[in-house]
Structures are given as structure tokens and as C-alpha cells.
């Protein structure tokens, strides 16, 4: 069984903005280009789940237009991490003391004071991962943070304590990876 992890196309947000669960659209041309490549390589009848955020739903909609054989459901657990009051702010404008607090207590610090901790976020993603069918390929249209969390979860890591344990890379916007489970 394989899990395809597709990251939404480039969001229409100023560079350097914290936009976790901020519901912003993606660039339509970039979405179309990504889907053109993806539609050619996906197996028939793959099960698809998408984050409800519009940048992901856009990609799902365009994909279904090119591949009407595919069906898609929305799954709230596939949303990006909730960054609380940091959402929509430039990362450079977030007080250094808050970012330092997050780094110092990476597992338990509620991002943006009202958002999720990494532990809460990973538990949410693990819930979706644990519900995957084990006899069929699945595709998730999601976000960089979810993809990073899945990479840890697939290796059996369900909790991290420090920021340096968080994966440094994820597919670029509009790109994907495939995990064999």
C-alpha cells in the first residue's frame, strides 16, 4: 500500500507570512500545472482525501476535472497546524520571545498562544494515518506540516520533544512524495 502526499500549489500570500490554517487560495496556474503532472501518474481508483482549506480543495477540484474516475472526501485532520494569533502575520513580526518559547518547549507550546502544540498536531495527523485502509493506495492533498508529521509517524515516531527533531524538508508547493507502507 502506498500513501501519496500532495502539497497544495503556491498560496496567494505574501512571502514570509505565517499562514498555517489561514484559508487562502492557491495560484490557479500553479495548481493547474501541478495537477497536469499528477493526473498522469496516479493509479486508477486511488482513494483521495483533502484538507478542507481552499488551497487544497482547489487542487482536488482541478484533479477531479482531469480524472473523473477519482472521488474525494474532505478530512479536517489533514489541515495544516493551527498557529493561533500568528496566522496572517509576517514571521519577522512575531515577537522573538514567543518564537523562543515555542522552540524551547516545542512539543507542548501552543503556537500563537491559541493554536496547537506540535504534540496536538501530531496526534491529529496520526489519527488520520491510523485510519488509512491497508489494502489500497491513498492520496492526501495537504500541507507541508502534515507531510513532515506523516514522515515521522510512518517511521514509528509519534512524539518529538525538540525542534531539531522536526523534519527540515517537505515537497515544494505543487509537488508530492509517495510512501510505501
TrEMBL record:
Record-linked SUPFAM superfamilies: Phosphoglycerate mutase-like
InterPro entries per the UniProt record, alphabetical: His_Pase_superF_clade-1, His_PPase_superfam
Protein's name according to its UniProt entry: Histidine phosphatase family protein
Transmembrane segments: none
Source species: Polaromonas aquatica
UniProt xrefs under Gene3D superfamilies: Phosphoglycerate mutase-like (3.40.50.1240)
Pfam families: His_Phos_1
